[in-house]
């Protein structure tokens, strides 16, 4: 069942076209991440779903109810949408309980049981109900904002980069708690983000946006392992792009003979290899692809290694486990694990 349907949505601001014919289906009780760089149109899309902006053309429907289109536009307050902005936007003069129940009918705002249920849902101690926003951490404020959005049991919850202002550790724990709360509440949600890790780890469906268009929509695994083009591959995670020649399911390139997926483009091609597919071993002296280790960026759990192929080959980047990081200047042998993607050559 589809909870949100968007068809051929367009929006321009003067000469700038923010959205150019967007189509998107959001399944019920799922989390869809709209992923793209700043200025690609993703926040404009979210604001139109919320009703804060009207489209120039196209339609938006919640279930079988059209809320924007040729027949008119339903105002935001009648769309049953929960909205969580970047900074939470809690009311500073209200305590947590009053913030959470703000969108409920007046008679229901005094129901402490509903407040407790929502605080439990977002993994907050019930004792924070009497605190004010300035007494909470950034992560706690975002969870309260989600509880407020969920309180009226909306058709769709919209999250506009809600974790962007948090530090790395708090961002991860808050994002996981929010995603779990949405699933526990059986909510349908759309998350706008420019963070690839956030989109891939939290969402059931990822919609990649570029210059006002959705260029790929699929599961996180599909978008990462089978990107629709090299530009998507480079945006959704790191990628090594190399020219090559494809014959059947085999490709020849600077990293040797690689395997491509059935039905891949044939002849001259651009190959996309993920850095974690490049395996390193100590130089044993015979055969294989040899490289010299250049810059090493160590992150603890893993590291990225710049490799200069010998003799005089291109530079590639590999990702290795932190405990297996080679020393700069060392000579290593390379192999590629798994299937790589192939696209028509741009030359």
UniProtKB/TrEMBL annotation:
It is an enzyme of class 7 (translocase). InterPro entries: AAA+_ATPase (IPR003593), ABC_SmlMolc_Importer (IPR050093), ABC_transporter-like_ATP-bd (IPR003439), ABC_transporter-like_CS (IPR017871), ABC_transpr_FbpC (IPR015853), Mo/tungstate-bd_C_term_dom (IPR008995), P-loop_NTPase (IPR027417), Transp-assoc_OB_typ2 (IPR013611). CDD domains: ABC_Carb_Solutes_like (cd03259). Its EC number is 7.6.2.9. Keywords: ATP-binding, Cell membrane, Ion transport, Iron, Iron transport, Membrane, Nucleotide-binding, Transport. GO terms for molecular function: ABC-type ferric iron transporter activity; ABC-type quaternary ammonium compound transporting activity; ATP binding; ATP hydrolysis activity. SMART domains: AAA. Residues 4-236 form the ABC transporter domain. GO terms for cellular component: ATP-binding cassette (ABC) transporter complex. Transmembrane segments: none annotated. This is ABC-type quaternary amine transporter.
């Amino acid at each position: 069942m589809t909870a949100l349907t968007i068809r051929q949505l367009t929006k321009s601001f003067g000469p700038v076209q923010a959205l150019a014919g967007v189509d998107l289906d959001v399944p019920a009780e799922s989390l869809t991440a709209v992923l793209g760089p700043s200025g690609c149109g993703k926040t404009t899309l979210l604001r139109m779903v919320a009703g804060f902006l009207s489209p120039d053309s196209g339609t938006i429907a919640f279930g079988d109810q059209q809320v924007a289109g040729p027949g008119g536009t339903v105002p935001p307050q009648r769309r049953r949408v929960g909205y969580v902005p970047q900074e939470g936007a809690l009311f500073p003069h209200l305590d947590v309980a009053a913030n959470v129940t703000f969108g409920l009918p007046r008679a229901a705002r005094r129901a402490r049981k509903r407040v407790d249920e929502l605080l439990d849902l977002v993994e907050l101690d019930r004792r924070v109900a009497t605190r004010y926003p300035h007494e909470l951490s950034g992560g706690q404020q975002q969870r309260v904002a989600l509880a407020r959005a969920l309180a009226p049991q909306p058709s769709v919850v919209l999250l506009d980069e809600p974790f962007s202002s948090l530090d790395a550790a708090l961002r991860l724990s808050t994002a996981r708690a929010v995603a779990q709360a949405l699933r526990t509440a059986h909510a349908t949600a759309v998350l706008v983000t420019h963070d690839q890790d956030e989109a891939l780890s939290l969402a059931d469906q990822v919609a990649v946006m570029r210059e006002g268009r959705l260029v790929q929509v699929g599961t996180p695994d599909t978008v990462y392992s089978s990107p629709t083009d090299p530009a998507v591959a480079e945006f959704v995670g790191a990628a090594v792009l190399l020219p090559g020649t494809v014959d059947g399911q085999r490709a020849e390139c600077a990293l040797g003979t690689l395997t491509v997926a059935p039905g891949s483009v044939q002849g001259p091609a651009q190959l996309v290899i993920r850095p974690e597919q490049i395996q390193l071993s100590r130089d044993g002296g015979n055969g294989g692809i040899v490289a010299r280790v250049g810059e090493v960026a160590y992150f603890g759990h893993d590291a990225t290694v710049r490799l200069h192929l010998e003799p005089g080959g291109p530079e590639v980047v590999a990702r290795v486990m932190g405990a297996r990081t080679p020393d700069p200047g060392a000579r290593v042998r390379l192999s590629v694990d798994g299937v790589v993607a192939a696209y028509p050559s741009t030359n």
